[in-house]
Amino acid sequence: MTITKEQNGSSLTVNLQGRLDTTTAPDLDAELKEDLAGIQALTLDLKELEYISSAGLRVLLSAQKVMNKQGSMVVRNVNQTVMEVFEITGFSDILTIA
Amino acid sequence: MRELSVDATVENIDRVTDFVNQELETLNCSQRTLYQIDVAVDELFGNIARYAYDPAVGPATVRVEVTENPLAVVITFIDHGIPYDPLSRTDPNVHLSAEERQIGGLGVFLVKKTMDGVSYEYKDGQNILRITKNLT
After folding, report:
1. How many domains does chain A have?
2. Which end of chain B has fewer CB atoms at under 10 Å, N or C?
């Protein structure tokens, strides 16, 4: 998976490319842990994300919990496969999907 | 029918995924089906890697078969670790808020919902977990 980031003051956009699964989820988790301090608006752009497994959901959940305390989080450009996973698991109710 | 036997480790998930994808290549699966199967492999082989032999490492076999009438792919995960039926677990509550959420069990739940069949048996000292995905 490739993770690219654009930060503008307290806004951070993270673009995910590839697969967010057991193998790659720890990378995203580590990146976010490092970067979320002081961020008030987090956007996760999933345009290039192929699929997500429960390991990826775990990272999104922990990011959502952090952002619930310090600002807001938006997930955008969700493809059909990923949306289906969000819907089955109820993450479509937890996340703000734009 | 083809199978791959490897150490059940998280590092080998990619290898198993590549093997399965290669077996499915000629079947004209939709992208959606392929991704669903890849997620299932990640969840199920991932669970074997993490728990079956914990804290040791042991082998697992992944078998891919294609059946006709109806056209379906059947993937079987076999290990001889601790007997464990992942299907015996209660489905997670997917209506809780972020703060109340538990992630445990979500992977197997996802597999149950996206595959057409999931079965488990413990036989001859082996955990045998089988998923079926219809291709028509």
Report:
1. 1
2. C
* Chain A residues with CB-CB distance to B114 below 8 A: 84, 88
Whole-number Å distance between alpha carbons of A35 and B70:
49
B53-82 pLDDT tens trace: 999 999 999 999 999 988 999 999 999 999
pLDDT in tens, A20-44: 999 999 999 999 999 999 999 999 9
Instruction: Tell me which H or E stretch contains B76.
Output: strand B72-79
CB contact under 8 A, A51 and B35: yes
**A52 Cβ contact partners less than 8 Å away, ≥ 6 residues apart:** A19, A20, A21, A60, A82, A85, B39
| Maximal C-alpha separation, chain A | 35
Amino acid at B50: R
Percent of chain A predicted with pLDDT > 90 = 100
pLDDT at A93 > cutoff 80: yes
- Provide the token pair at B32: 């959606």
Residue B7's pLDDT is: 98
Give the structural domain span for A65.
2-94
Distances (CA, A) of A22 to A46, B40, B79, B118: 17, 11, 19, 21
Nearest CB neighbour to B101, from listed A52, A61, A84:
A61
- With an 8 Å Cβ cutoff, are A53 and B94 in contact? no
Burial class of residue A89 in the structure, from the number of CB atoms within 10 Å of its CB (0-12 exposed, 13-18 middle, 19+ buried): buried
In chain B, what are the domains?
Answer: 2-134 (3.30.565.10)
